[in-house]
Design a protein that fits this description.
There is one protein chain. This protein is α+β, with helices and mostly antiparallel strands and 395 residues long. Among the domains are: 164 residues, no CATH class; 100 residues, Outer Surface Protein A, domain 3. 42% of the residues lie in helices and 10% in strands. The strands form two sheets. Strands 1-5-2-3-4 form a five-stranded antiparallel β-sheet, with helices on one face. It has a three-stranded antiparallel β-sheet with strand order 7-6-8. The longest helix has 21 residues. The termini are far apart.
């Protein structure tokens, strides 16, 4: 039996805690408007997470490109291979040797927690829990996440998020580097290796910014919205937004008027047509050739007589069949024709039905025979013999 209801009546903290305590297995579906989030539980632990707004496969590729583990061309090549093989992106990346198993596990963990932490900010919505798990869960690379880990981080985010949200404009607001930021020399430009290794520090360098702030600022080399940056940032959404708020207050980012420009990423073919595969279009000779291949067998191999070498197509022709019944069948047919037409033995009827009899009907006309059911004529008694004359009487 499914468990369902409203998040106003049963909040996510209570829901997750109940699933953990009872050690449930199943799928929790959370919905708010057009957004759906699925959380998969096994023995009360989280073994998978997905969202219809941000696919896990897309986040995985995005994060690996941002970490410098892949280039845009390499990821696009992997996407093409995935469409042909239908394998998971993580499996293809491991087989190619471009990432390690640890890199993949960390990326999947960060993706799942990012989706969950954003979902915990929902104040309304619906939930439904079914005790069924999809068979295609990535159990090999997704390390189960304890529910307590998610709840503790979600509680911290809920405490800090209102203040960060107050310091930020709309998530759809487009931001760009200010002239001061463009003239700034960042420490990460001097030490790229530390960025790729994920080493963060709170110490301020010559730029006066923390390492985290410099990384977030580098995302705005091209103007884009805050929402777009949180989708590709290697940091948690809360930490990314805090860094953006600090950069706005320091005058290193400035809002742009009008609509947010379209985000151009190297692995998106719309942004870089040179990476896109050539569009396939059928040749002008395709359909004439198809018609020719269909017409040739019909013209050359469909037989006009039974002696064709193509026995398969010859079987479509009308068959010349002569049915020869056995002896018992012939006798039954003769009786049927005689009973149907006693006068001529059914000869005319047999001719009309296409079952002509050879000669006369061998069954005798029963009407010429005496009726065995007719009563026998009465027997006339024989006259009694005359009495013999005696001698005395004769005298």
């Amino acid at each position: 039996m499914a468990l369902e209801g409203s998040l106003r009546d049963f909040d996510l903290f209570s829901l997750f805690n109940m699933i953990k305590i009872q050690g449930k297995n199943g799928t929790l579906v959370l919905s708010q408007g057009q957004e759906f989030v699925k959380v998969f539980f096994e023995n009360g632990e989280i073994v998978g997470c997905d969202s219809n707004q941000v696919r896990m496969e897309d986040r995985l590729g995005t994060m690996l490109v941002r970490l410098g583990r892949l280039t845009g061309e390499e990821l696009l090549s992997m996407v093409q291979v995935q469409r042909q093989t239908l394998k998971r992106m993580g499996t293809l990346l491991l087989e190619s040797g471009k990432v390690t198993a640890t890199d993949l596990q960390d990326a999947l963990f960060n993706q799942a927690t990012a989706i969950l932490h954003r979902t915990f900010r929902w104040v309304e919505g619906d939930y439904r829990f079914d005790s069924m798990l999809p068979p295609d869960l990535d159990r090999e690379h997704f390390v189960p996440i304890p529910v307590d880990t998610v709840l503790m981080e979600a509680a911290r985010i809920q405490d800090e998020w209102p203040e960060v949200e107050r310091r930020l404009p709309s998530m759809d607001q487009a931001l760009a580097k200010s002239p001061r930021a463009q003239a700034l020399h960042l420490d990460i430009d001097r030490d790229v290796s530390s960025v790729l290794d994920g080493k963060t520090t709170v110490q301020h360098g010559s730029s006066g910014l923390t390492h985290e702030q410099e990384v977030v600022l580098s995302y705005f080399d091209h103007p884009q919205s805050i929402k777009d940056v949180t989708q590709v940032s290697r940091y948690e959404e809360l930490d990314t937004c805090k860094a953006i708020a600090d950069l706005l207050e320091n005058g290193l980012l400035e809002p742009l008027s009008g609509e947010a420009p379209k985000v151009v990423r190297p692995w998106v073919t719309d942004g870089h047509p040179e990476y896109a595969p050539e569009a396939w279009e059928p040749s002008l000779l395709l359909w004439p050739l198809v018609a020719l291949f269909l017409a040739v067998p019909l013209l050359l191999y469909v037989p006009h007589r039974r002696g064709s070498v193509n026995l398969g197509l010859a079987s479509l022709q009308p068959a010349d069949v002569h049915v020869v019944p056995d002896g018992a069948t012939r006798v039954r047919q003769a009786w049927a024709f005689r009973m149907a037409s006693p006068r001529d033995g059914g000869l005319e009827l047999a001719q009309r039905l296409g079952r002509p009899l050879e000669g006369r009907n061998p069954v005798e006309d029963l009407s010429l025979l005496p009726d065995p059911m007719a009563p026998a004529p009465p027997q006339v008694p024989a006259p009694a013999p005359a009495p013999a004359k005696t001698g005395a009487h004769a005298r």
